[in-house]
What we know:
With 437 residues, the protein is an all-alpha fold. It has helices at residues 23-37, 51-70, 79-100, 110-132, 137-160, 162-171, 180-185, 196-215, 223-244, 248-261, 263-269, 274-298, 300-309, 311-319, 325-334, 343-348, 364-394, 399-412, 421-428; strands at 41-42, 172-173.
Amino acid sequence: MELYLDKVESGDLFHTSKKSSSILSSFLVGIIVSCYFFPFELYALPEGLNTKIMLAAVGIALLGFDVIQRRSLVLKSTLLPLMLLALLFSMWGYIAMDINHSHDDAYASYWISFSTWLLGAYTVISLIRYMHGYVHFNLLIDYLVAVCVAQCMIALLIDYIPAVKNVVDTYISQKTIIEVEFLEKVNRLYGIGAAVDVAGTRFSIVLIALAAVLIKAKDRPNSATYVMLYWAAFVFIAIVGNMISRTTTIGMVMGLVYILGNAHILYNEMPIENLRLWRTIILVTGLLAGIAMYYYHTDAVIREQLRFGFEGFFNWLEKGEWTTTSTERLNEVMWIWPDADDYKTWIIGKALFSNWHDVGTDIGYCRFVFYSGLLGLFTFSFFFVYNAWVGIQQFPTYRMFFFMLLALSFIIWFKVSTDLFLIYALFLCMDKEGQRK
Length: 437
C-alpha cells in the first residue's frame, strides 16, 4: 500500500461526485480537517487524548485495512529520508537527555509526533478522496481556507456571545495549546483549538496558500468569482487572525508579496475581466476594512483587539516606528545562548525545552540549541528543507508556495519554536501533480 492517494486530472475543483453532492458531507469533512489542523481535547475524554491522536488511530486502522486488501505495503521513496531524519532528530534529543540526566523528552520523542501527524493526515486525505472521488492541491486548500474562516468566526462568537463561550468552555479543552484562564487574563480571542502562536502559524500557512490558489484561479471556470472569494477570505483571516495572534502578520505579509509579485499573471491572462476583477477586489477590501473601521470607532472591545492585532501598524502611524511589545521583548531579553565555552551545550544541548522558563527564552533557534544543540537544530532544519523539496517535486506548479512555506518556518523560529510538518504531512499523502495511478 502506498502512503498517498489517487488524484484526477485538473478540472472544476468544486465538482463533486455522487458521494459528496450534499453540503452536509462537505461540512463533515471540514470538521475533520479542523480536528486535524486545530486539534483539541474534550473534557469528557481522558486527558491528553486530542483529536489529532484520534485521527492517527483511525489512520492506523485505514492503513491496516488497505494493506490487507492489497496484500502489500509500499512506501514512497521520498518518505524514507524523512523518516530517517525524524529518527535522527529524536536520537539527538535522547542523547541530550541521557548526557544531562534530563526527563524532558519534548523532542526525543519527535518520531512519535511525526508518525501521529502523518497518520492523521492519511485519515484526512482518505476522507476527502472518499467524499469527492479525488484529492488534489486546490481542493485541500479550499478546505483549509474554509476551516480558518470558520475558526475566526467562532472566535468572534465566543467573544461576543456568552452562551457560545459557555458551551465551548464547558466541553472543549484548550490545553493542547494553553489554558483558557490565561487567554481570558490577557483578553485574547480563541477558537476551538485555535489560539496564540499556534493559531497564528496555521493562519500564516493558509494565507500563503490562499495567495497561491488565487494566482492560479485563472484556470478555473468563473475565475473572477473565485478570485473574489479567495481575496475576501484572505482579508478576513488577516484581520481576525491578527486579533487572535499577531504571528498571522508574517503569513499576511508573505501572502501579499506572493500576490503582488505575480499580479501580472492575473492582469495579462484575464484581459476581458480585468476591470471587473480589480474593481471587485477593491470593493471587497473596502467593505471589510470599512466594517473593521466602523467597529473600531464604535466598540471599545474591538478597538482594543484591533490595536493589539495591528500594534505594529498603529505604532508606525502614530509614532513613526514599527514596534510591538513582542518584538521589543525579543530584542531586549529573549535572545539567550549557551556560554561561549560551553561546547557540550552548543553541540548536543541540555535537553531543556518543555518549560521555557528553564532556559529563559521562547525564541525557536535558542530553544532548539538548548535542547539538542547545533546537531539537533541543523537536523531539524534540513528536515524541513527536504519537506519543501518533496513538495516542489510533487507540485511543481506551486514551487513558490513551498519556497515560502520553508521560509515561514525559519522566520517564525525567530519568535517561537514551532513545527510545520502538519501541512507537509497532508501533501505527502497525496499523489504527484498530474499523475494517475
